């Protein structure tokens, strides 16, 4: 199978899974926000999930991604050490998990006092359980990526997200509130983790002759996990600490506005994250084969598609945010509309970063990315502290856009230093796609006042997509027939 075919197969599997996952999560989001939880409870649930995500940093420490990087390399050149890499990384992961879970439980009263949310003291017991299963789930996701079997990662995602919906909705409908919802998250991740253990053991661990490993290999894996830890930690700070700061400076209701807006952007970003997850191992393979020029063309083409999808998407989100939020989630979430409008710019930056960062890890540039992420994440925290008291939850969104935009530019520059990108080609695609977005945006702007009901809203969105399709085809920026042929 050719490299292109493998990338496309992985992309299709990952995209299909993430579409299923996001439909499931979108349904869960709608049911929780509109029917099952108050906006105060909704904000509390995702405050806890953000705390768990930050705590997970201490349990992960970049070990899974470091192991995945070495597995990707060694399975081609020295396959007998693969079982050693799996065994060693899992052993360290379990040790760290135990320590962090104990710390999380021990500090539950302090968290409840600092955030002025008394319910946290009790709910942190469930949060510790969620930390354990979620961390092990993400471990398997990373290792399957290292084996270049992202289709198996896709299977785990479907198991986690679909069963999560069933458990969360069922337990919350029984009147268990936030505790029931959190326990539903635990059950979904636990089932995916169990499936991951079985697949990892049967498909990979026993497939390779176990030749053991050396302390040198273990130390290199641990050493490479340091910059991965730094960059991943900074990424989590970017994505989660702002939620905690909103809870600290304002209240869980404001958290619900912020989290809801971010969840909408995550739904839109499914194609970017799917493609980035699928294509990233190819950069490491091409570098190992001294085919950097081919890797550069792959990345440039990937960027071209990201521009084509997400610059128009950002314009559309900016224009329909207000009617979409109030019609779909209710007027009590109207405060999320300006937040979503600001985050429309973040969508473009996140799409570019989504197809860049993991590729840099496989190219061996995790340390450089970690420095950039560390600086921008600290800046993000500082801007949040300054802007939230002044502008409220919209200030948190603005801080995210400003700092993440800078991080995106640095990532692209680092990728260029590795692959010598053709910026003329990239710039031409950016200008042409921006023109297409403007043409589509003018049409949607005229129709937005008529979006007074959910069917009318989706009608406006459908018209915008149709106009986008016509402009893309007329511009010749891609050949639709060739694209459809590749994806089928």
Automatic annotation (TrEMBL):
Keyword match Amino-acid biosynthesis: no
Entry-linked CDD domains: MATE_Wzx_like
Membrane topology type: Multi-pass membrane protein
Localisation: Cell membrane
Primary location group: membrane
InterPro entries registered for this protein in UniProt: Poly_Biosynth_Transport, Polysacc_synth
Assigned keywords, A-Z: Cell membrane, Membrane, Transmembrane, Transmembrane helix
Descriptive protein name: Membrane protein involved in the export of O-antigen and teichoic acid
């Amino acid at each position: 199978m050719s490299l292109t075919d493998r990338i496309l197969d992985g992309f299709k599997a990952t995209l299909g899974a993430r579409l299923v996952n996001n439909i499931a999560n979108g349904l869960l989001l709608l049911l929780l926000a509109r029917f099952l939880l108050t906006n105060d409870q909704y904000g509390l649930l995702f405050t806890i999930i953000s705390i768990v995500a930050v705590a997970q940093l201490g349990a992960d420490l970049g070990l899974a991604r470091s192991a995945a990087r070495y597995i990707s390399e060694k399975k081609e050149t020295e396959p007998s050490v693969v079982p050693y890499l799996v065994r060693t990384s899992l052993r360290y992961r379990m040790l760290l998990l135990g320590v962090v879970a104990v710390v999380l439980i021990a500090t539950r009263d302090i968290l409840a006092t600092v955030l002025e949310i008394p319910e946290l003291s009790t709910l942190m017991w469930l949060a510790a359980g969620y930390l354990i299963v979620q961390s092990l789930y993400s471990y398997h996701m990373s290792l399957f990526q290292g084996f270049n079997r992202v289709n198996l990662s896709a299977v785990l995602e479907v198991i986690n997200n679909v069963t999560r919906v069933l458990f969360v909705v069922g337990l919350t409908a029984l009147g268990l509130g936030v505790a029931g919802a959190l326990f539903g998250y635990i059950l979904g991740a636990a089932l995916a983790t169990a499936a991951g253990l079985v697949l990892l053991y049967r498909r990979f661990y026993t497939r390779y002759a176990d030749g053991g490993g050396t302390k040198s290999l273990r130390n290199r894996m641990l050493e490479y996990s340091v910059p991965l830890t730094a960059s991943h930690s900074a990424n989590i700070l970017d994505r989660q600490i702002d939620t905690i700061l909103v809870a600290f400076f304002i209240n869980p209701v404001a958290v619900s506005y912020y989290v809801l807006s971010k969840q909408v952007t995550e739904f839109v970003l499914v194609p970017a994250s799917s493609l980035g997850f699928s294509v990233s191992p190819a950069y490491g393979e091409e570098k190992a084969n001294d085919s950097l020029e081919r890797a550069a063309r792959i990345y440039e083409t990937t960027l071209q598609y990201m521009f084509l999808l997400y610059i128009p998407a950002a314009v559309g989100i900016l224009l329909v945010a207000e009617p979409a939020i109030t019609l779909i989630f209710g007027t009590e979430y109207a405060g999320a509309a300006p937040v979503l409008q600001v985050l429309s710019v973040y969508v473009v930056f996140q799409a570019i970063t989504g197809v860049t960062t993991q590729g840099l890890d496989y190219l061996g540039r995790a340390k450089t990315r970690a420095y950039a992420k560390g600086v921008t994440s600290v800046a993000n925290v500082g801007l949040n502290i300054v802007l939230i008291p002044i502008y409220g939850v919209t200030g948190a969104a603005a801080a995210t856009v400003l700092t993440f935009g800078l991080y995106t530019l640095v990532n692209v520059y680092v990728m260029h230093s590795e692959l010598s990108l053709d910026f003329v080609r990239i710039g031409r695609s950016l200008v042409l796609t921006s023109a297409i977005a403007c043409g589509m945006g003018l049409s949607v702007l005229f129709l937005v006042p008529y979006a007074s009901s959910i069917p009318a809203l989706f009608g406006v969105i459908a018209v915008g997509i149709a106009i986008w399709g016509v402009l893309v085809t007329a511009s010749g920026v891609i050949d639709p027939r060739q694209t459809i042929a590749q994806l089928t």
